[in-house]
């Protein structure tokens, strides 16, 4: 799972979660976003139109770009420390919060709705 590789870079792990919302993991899109806007501040200030073009391959380009910018702005204002705080961040939901709890906090008591996260926990708990 991409989260495993990004657990020491929580901002980028959550960006990945936003990118896979209602889409499949696309390392090319993720890499391009990270290359063009290498910090939370730069992504927060990205041009909406340019970011839309980069993420449009995943679908929901306008919404996804808006969520990425809003999340990045919120991150710059106050970095979250818990999965509960992730739930309050723009563009984040259960998947991002569960990913945070599992990969950043190192928790195994999470009951994710996502089948890939369930499978991951089953493999690491069993």
List the helices and strands and how they pair.
Elements lengths: L1 H5 L3 H11 L6 H10 L3 H5 L3 H8 L5 H17 L5 H5 L6 H11 L10 H11 L1
Helix pairs in contact: 2-6, 2-8, 5-6
Summarize the structure.
This protein is mainly α. The chain has helices at residues 2-6, 10-20, 27-36, 40-44, 48-55, 61-77, 83-87, 94-104, 115-125. It is 66% helix and 0% strand.
Question: Key features?
Answer:
126 residues; mainly alpha; Endonuclease III, domain 1; 66% helix; 0% strand; globular
- The CATH class, by name, is Mainly Alpha
Fraction of helical residues: 55-70%
Number of helices: 9
**Biggest beta-sheet profile:** none
- How confident is the prediction overall: mean pLDDT? 95
The CATH topology is Endonuclease III, domain 1
Terminal residue distance = 17 Å
In N-to-C order, the SSE pattern is HHHHHHHHH
Number of domains: 1
Write down the oligomeric state: single chain
Strand content: under 5%
CATH architecture descriptor name:
Orthogonal Bundle
Question: Shape, please?
Answer: globular
Uncertain residue ranges: none
Q: What does the radius of gyration come to?
A: 14 Å
- In total, the number of strands is 0
Name the CATH superfamily assignment: Hypothetical protein, domain 2
Which class do the helix and strand fractions yield? mainly alpha
